[in-house]
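Thread: quick sanity check before group meeting

JM: Hey all, I'm pulling together slides for Thursday and realized we never actually wrote out the predicted structure for the chain we discussed last week. Dropping the sequence here so it's in one place. If anyone has concerns about the input, flag it before I start.
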Amino acid sequence: MSAEKSGKEKEAPTTELPLLRVLFLCTGNSCRSIMAEALARHLFPPGMVADSAGSKPAGAVNPKALTTLFRARIPAEGLKSKSWEDLSGSYDLVVTLCDSAAGESCPLYLSKAVRVHWGLPDPARAAGSDEEIDRAFRQAFATIRKRIEVFLARVEEASGANPRRLPSREILESIAGIG
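JM (edit): ok, ran it. Output follows.
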C-alpha cells in the first residue's frame, strides 16, 4: 500500500543538530578560553557543543590552566591552543573572555552568532608568589564555572519541554550580565 493510499505520509529523515554550539574566544587561547571549553564540555548536556579558539593563538596551553583543570577533576585531554581560522561550522553563541578579543572583528563564519563578553582578568599575567598566581587561576576558573552553570540554567528555562529548541536571542544575550 502506498503512503498516499494509507493516509500516512513518509517521514523525512531527521538529522540531530546540536542544541547549541558555543565558541569561547580569547586572543591567545591558552588560559581562560581553554578552561571555559573544558568546563563547558564537562558540564554541557549531550547535544551541546563547546570549542575555544584565539585570533592570535599562543600555540600552547598554559600549564597552570591544565593544573587548575586537573585539580578540579575536569578532563583536559585534547585541549590545544588554536586559531579561529582552524575551526569550521557555525556557532550560535560566541563568548569573548578577554577585552582585546571583545573588540576584534570576527571571521565571517561567526557573523550570525550572538556575541557576548564575559571579561576576566588574565590569570597568566598574575604576579607574585606561586600561591598568588594559583589563586588567580582558581578565581578565573570559579568565575567561568559560575557563569556556565547560570547559563545552563537559563538555557534549560528557555527550552521548556523541547530540549532541542534554542533559547531566544534575548536569553543568549542576557548571559553577559552573569557575575
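AS: nice. The mean pLDDT is 81. Residues 130-159 form the longest helix (30 residues).
JM: adding both to the slides.
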